[in-house]
Amino acid sequence: MGTAPGEFEIIRDYFASAAQGEGVVLGIGDDCALLQAPASGQLATSMDTLVAGRHFPEDADPAAIAARALRVNLSDLAAMNARPLWFTLALTLPRSDAQWLRQFADGLLQTAAQFGVSLVGGDTTAGPLSITLQVIGHTEMPLRRDGASPGDHVYISGPLGAAAAALPVILGEQRVDPETQRQAEAAYFFPEPQFALASAISELASSALDISDGLLADLGHICVSSGVSADVYLEQLAVAPLAQALAGKEALERAATGGDDYQLCFTVPQQQVAKLNKLDLEIFAIGILTEGDAGVRCWHNGNPWQVSSTGYKHF
Amino acid sequence: MGTAPGEFEIIRDYFASAAQGEGVVLGIGDDCALLQAPASGQLATSMDTLVAGRHFPEDADPAAIAARALRVNLSDLAAMNARPLWFTLALTLPRSDAQWLRQFADGLLQTAAQFGVSLVGGDTTAGPLSITLQVIGHTEMPLRRDGASPGDHVYISGPLGAAAAALPVILGEQRVDPETQRQAEAAYFFPEPQFALASAISELASSALDISDGLLADLGHICVSSGVSADVYLEQLAVAPLAQALAGKEALERAATGGDDYQLCFTVPQQQVAKLNKLDLEIFAIGILTEGDAGVRCWHNGNPWQVSSTGYKHF
Q1: CDD domains per the record (chains A, B) (predicted)?
Q2: Is a pLDDT exceeding 90 seen at residue B283?
Q3: Which of A200, B105, B107, B258 has the highest CB neighbour number within 10 Å of its CB?
């Protein structure tokens, strides 16, 4: 095509084909999408904005940007034990660029197909590059962050620190060999929403969330919402091999405070631990909840551990 | 407060109180909001982005920006004959500014209360000022744009051209007296979603949409979606008094092609026109649908009327 595509052509050519799937009565192209909610259970919805230069480098692979945007958003559904149904896209672009759009759309729709979620609407505007996605899912047994009690055990769903350690590589501040570069890009742009794990623990866990701002900050949110404190034993924390390779002796701090891994942090009452252990999941027990409002206290081999940062702040 | 509020404080202080209302099981503060959909009918959802410097002046009254953002989004629900239930907000701000946020939140929540819609979640990020809203509503009898047929009559729900004529005033390019300034701000920032009218015509209309891009462009969307053409008789078009006052002899063109009024354009089959007339609505018959794919043809006092523009293009 010789000319830059306009708004309606962008929507029609790149995204309209995606609006099919469960519950989609009417997809892209009208004032609203029309959706049929499941007869039972509840809807779960979450919205995330990714801004160029802040959440991803402006010149990053458009397909990787799209994949990260959707995976991050889907992770919120996973953290509530909701299965994905629909999502919408608000795309703000400095200019209409057919090649960038094609790559972005390919990455977005490939990710959508992988997780079984349908693009049902959105908006495209001109302006500084920014992506806002809203996902809507369905849950019969939601995992909330306000159900934890003193005595509950604290778990994480996998090793932490990879995405935080990868960030300097993604930003071009740290040069590494091609294989490490590939691992860094995978860790940062392709986090894995923990749907299967959330489903497995949904009848046992008293609270859960996804670790987006950093373990200690996010566990702090469970503490505030549930009215408890937490003791975390950092020697039990699983540190991602990539974090050890890239961050050296700072790897533990990256794992404790770095965001963007999108593993789950969840709590399980003492009386459910035996059932949990029978599930033989690859999870890591890292601490215990206590009474009071002291927040999250960290220990390392029996000594108090002082954190220099408690998570990513957007302002 | 001596310090600028951080992300969590913004959410907690300014928006969290709003998350109540019909179907809200769990509002702001967890990974997802949890929502209970009505037992029958369908959900309708729409997303709109407003970018500073493009959709509103960066230094506009924050409460007015918020009101316009939500009203524009609600208008999409009205156009589908959906009543509002919930909405989410993605707010990107260059810096954390407590006074701006307070005014924005006041305008947003006041508008939300007026239309009975609950803020259930969102995201705040740092970056160039931009607002993305997504509304979710409920409809038992949706008004779509693909149901029109040749012979249907074309209507608009009220006078057009006010918002387009107001734009130069809003942008500071046209100086007017204080009363006209007030009317211009009302027309641009406080469009009225046409919920009552949509409900009244829902059993009679064959198609409907809200006029956001301009009458001729939006009627063109009905033509494409329904596979019809349209003849529009511009002498029957109701031109807003403000458009006549501000745009003079260009008022008719503003009414035909200017966007942002958010009146409805809808079509009614011949055999339903008598019933429609009995409703005694303040609406305006402006044309007729025909066969073919000739798009929208305009006439003025019997002569073909050439438009110099067919609506706002975002790129």
Answers
A1: ThiL
A2: yes
A3: B258
